[in-house]
Amino acid sequence: MLNKNHKAGESQDHQPDDYQVQIDKLTSDIQSLEKTNESLRSELEQIKKEQITYLQNVSHQIVAPLHAMKMHIENLRYGRIENPERVRKVLRSIYSQATIAVHLSKNFSLMSNLEADQTLAAQREPLEPVNLKKLMINLADDFQPSGWEKNVHVTVIDYPFETAPPVLAIKNLIGQVFSNIIENAVKYSYNDTEITISGKYNQDDTVTVMVSNIGLPLIPEEQGLLFTRGYRSKEAKNAYPAGTGFGLYIAKKIVEIHEGKILAYIDNGSIVFEVTLSVKSLEGKAMHREAKYNSNRG
Q1: Angle at the Cα of 163 from the Cα atoms of 194 and 281, rounded to 5 degrees
Q2: 194-201 and 270-278 strand pairing
Q3: Domain map of the chain by residue range?
Q4: What kind of architecture, by CATH, is found in domain 128-278?
């Protein structure tokens, strides 16, 4: 009995220590949760600030081309421009401004969708075979008017691009990837230069598209930041103060959804954006429809 009482006493002596350990652990857990909560609150505030900035920038950028189009149309409507060559230039400018407005509107729409639905299966549109060379030709035609003012020419190189098979992708999303890249290339290219778009079929059943231009320098230290949401280099901000920094971020998001790769690098003085997509590895991972090639739009 004495031994039992002694052991019971020992157990009672240790109970306060056990309680203190538990209290200390709970205190530590609470402090950790408070730090996590504070971090999440800061991130939320930062996201809200970025959203406000993005909305302001997009609003400004959409209004600018719409205002320019309105001015040009008024000049044509009231006969203020009579020279045929000048009329052609104004019409080209209207087309260019309309292309920019549509491009910005699509980016604006995609931002919220991509943040909410980050998987291929969650996207509303189906997969279909996409001829990337045809798509590049169409996009080159769309953005060429924007380059005329700086005498920048957009060229799609046929070989070996023409030997590449179609890739399985959501066409509108992949189109926006290359719209963002080409629009950047036109905007930041130096005067009297050429933007070249090339492609190739790889042995691992993928197709790689390269968009190359000569323009604002790409600093090596900034290469890893180019696809960060809201990021714009100092050179880009100085050249074009009004910008969102979301175009390349959206491009990367879409490429990642398609399980592809996107990167930027410098090659012999040219800035190259490279996108690689699989020909058919996405089969069965989302809705699928066969492409209809009745249209020349790829």
Answers
A1: 105
A2: unpaired
A3: 1-116, 128-278
A4: 2-Layer Sandwich (3.30)
End-to-end Cα distance, the chain: 93
Which residues make beta-bridge pairs with 13?
none
Least Cα distance to 249 among 184, 189, 198 occurs for 184
Residue type, 15: Q
Pairing of strands 194-201, 206-213: antiparallel
SS3 150: coil
DSSP letter for each residue of 262-273: EEEEEETTEEEE
Q: Are strands 270-278 and 206-213 parallel, antiparallel or unpaired?
A: antiparallel
- Amino acid at residue number 66: L
Which residue, chain included where needed, has tokens 């998987």? Answer: 119
Query: What are the contacts of 46-50 at 24+ separation with CB within 8 A?
Result: 50/229, 50/230
pTM of the shown model:
0.72
CB 227 within 8 A of CB 252: yes
**Each residue's pLDDT tens digit, 77-122:** 888 888 888 888 889 888 888 887 887 788 777 776 776 666 766 6
Is 114:250 a contact under the CB 8 Å cutoff?
A: yes
* Contact of 162 with 199, CB cutoff 8 Å: no
Contact 166, 131 (CB under 8 A): yes
Specify whether the CB–CB gap between 173 and 208 falls below 8 A.
no
For residue 185, which of 264, 109, 255 has the smallest C-alpha distance? Answer: 264
